[in-house]
Automatic annotation (TrEMBL):
Binding residues annotated for ATP, in chain numbering: 206, 302, 333, 359-362
Catalytic activity as recorded in UniProt: (2R)-3-phosphoglycerate + ATP = (2R)-3-phospho-glyceroyl phosphate + ADP
Binding of substrate, residues: 22-24, 37, 60-63, 119, 156
Protein name: Phosphoglycerate kinase
UniProt keyword list: ATP-binding, Cytoplasm, Glycolysis, Kinase, Nucleotide-binding, Transferase
Pathway assignment: Carbohydrate degradation; glycolysis; pyruvate from D-glyceraldehyde 3-phosphate: step 2/5
Residues at which (2R)-3-phosphoglycerate binds: 37, 119, 156
Length: 404
């Protein structure tokens, strides 16, 4: 079965349509540093506004703890959406409370309202299905129909991504359809050599993907926060760098399996180690088996891949016909630790084949480092979502829309 599209919902003029977007953008002091995901949400919202639907936008932002936290308010994102739509966009200070109910009731045809962060409500991400269904029911009370367009979150079985879509007539938005068109090419018949580059900080989420990618790819390049669990698996000390100790054995298994399958997992030979997590911190380049031998000893933090590693990664990337990259190579937000990400991004722009960058922060990184979207084959709004799609997994937020 293929995705149900918006037209399967019938005429939407005057109907209340809840649209699940992924507006989880990077913010610094409530200022959006990359609005890519907001822009990517616009075509579907414009299409619904154009039909005269009453559009109610819902999204998460960050990982708040199931309770309101002003740091994660969607208010600045609602304002940006208004600029991009060039129309007034309302904002409710809660998700399913009295303010939301009043503003939904007052919404006119062709108007847009953004509700406050879904994850301020424990039911959104609850592990308990009944709790998720109860929260989805509260959202469904606002909806005659649901459009799901938050590609970045379709791998999460969360109330607004799965249970809500079961409770009302639902369909996929234009962004999800676009994303699947490109990513499907990567699962069906990627031109070889096929290289996947992994980094970022959601280490435990993404390590699990590796087992499923090994049968599909020729080369895996490992940078970012996850590289330290690999170094630890090889018996090296990693100072105070990000480390998933309980994954070390699993990672040893990946290394052994890669050897058996003839897949090369390329690990950094040098890293940038800093005295603290700050742009002003002292930092040095060191061999990746000597992280604790810098002046910072065991408190040293690995915050980027080193220049030798970056050059080796770039060579692998340029020699590939298909490259998928998720997760910055280092803490690119701090200038001294952006070089590895810059080198890898540059190499992707030189791929003679299909290059895909996936993930909110990875997309933000390439734009912040001065690249334009058209220098890559595709920039996906989903990091974890596209990785899990590439590993061939059935994603709850897609299955509920008819995708098989
Ligand atoms: N060595 C590292 N230590 C800590 N954080 C890192 C490291 N390398 C990269 N990061 C961080 O990873 C974050 C992005 O990770 P992630 O959310 O997994 O990527 P994406 O959003 O592209 O899927 C960035 O904010 C970056 O600072
Ligand atoms: O940023 C996101 O994913 P990504 O970092 O894998 O691209 C999505 O908004 C999902 O967020 P989550 O990983 O907190 O569920």
């Amino acid at each position: 079965m293929t995705l149900r599209t918006i037209d399967t919902l019938g005429p939407l003029a005057g109907k209340r349509v809840v649209v699940r977007c992924d507006l989880n953008v990077p913010l610094q002091n409530a200022v959006i540093t990359d609005d890519g995901r907001v822009r990517a949400s616009v075509p579907t919202l414009e299409a619904l506004v154009g039909q005269g639907a009453r559009v109610i936008v819902v999204s998460h932002l960050g990982r708040p703890d199931g309770a309101p936290d002003p740091k994660y308010s969607l208010a600045p994102i609602a304002a940006r959406l208004g600029e991009l739509l060039d129309a007034p966009v309302g904002f409710a200070a809660d998700t399913v409370g009295t303010d939301a109910a009043a503003k939904v009731a007052a919404l006119g045809d062709g108007e847009v309202l953004v509700l406050e962060n879904l994850r301020f409500n424990p039911g959104e991400t609850s592990k308990n299905e009944a709790e998720r269904t109860a929260f989805a029911g509260e959202l469904a009370a606002f909806a005659d129909a649901v459009v799901s367009d938050g590609f970045g979150v379709v791998h999460r079985k969360q109330a607004s991504v799965f249970e809500l879509e079961e409770l009302r007539p639902s369909a996929a938005g234009l962004l999800i359809a676009d994303e699947l068109e490109v990513l499907d090419r990567l699962t069906e018949s990627p031109e070889r050599p096929y290289t996947v580059v992994l980094g970022g900080s959601k280490v435990s989420d993404k390590l699990g993907v590796i087992a499923h990618l090994l049968p599909r790819v020729d080369t895996l390049l490992i940078g970012g926060g996850m590289l330290f669990t690999f170094l630890a698996a090889q018996g090296h000390k990693v100072g105070s760098s990000l480390l998933e100790e309980d994954q070390i054995e699993t990672v040893r298994g990946y290394l052994a399996e890669a050897t058996e399958r003839g897949v090369s997992i390329v690990l950094p030979t040098d890293v940038v180690v800093a005295s603290a997590f700050s742009a002003e911190a002292e930092h040095v380049v060191t061999a990746s088996d000597a992280i604790e031998q810098t002046p910072f000893g065991a408190s040293g933090l690995g915050l980027d891949i080193g220049p030798d590693t970056a050059a080796v990664f770039a060579e692998h990337i340029r020699g590939s016909k298909t490259v998928f990259w998720n997760g910055p190579m280092g803490v690119f937000e701090l200038a001294p630790f952006a070089a590895g990400t810059l080198t890898v991004a540059e190499a992707l722009t030189a791929v003679d084949g299909l290059s895909v960058v996936g993930g909110g922060d990875s997309a933000a990184a390439v734009r912040q480092l001065g690249f334009s979207d058209d220098q890559f084959g595709h920039i996906s709004t989903g990091g974890g979502a596209s990785l899990e799609f590439l590993e061939g997994k059935k994603l709850p937020g897609l299955e509920v829309l008819g995708w098989q």
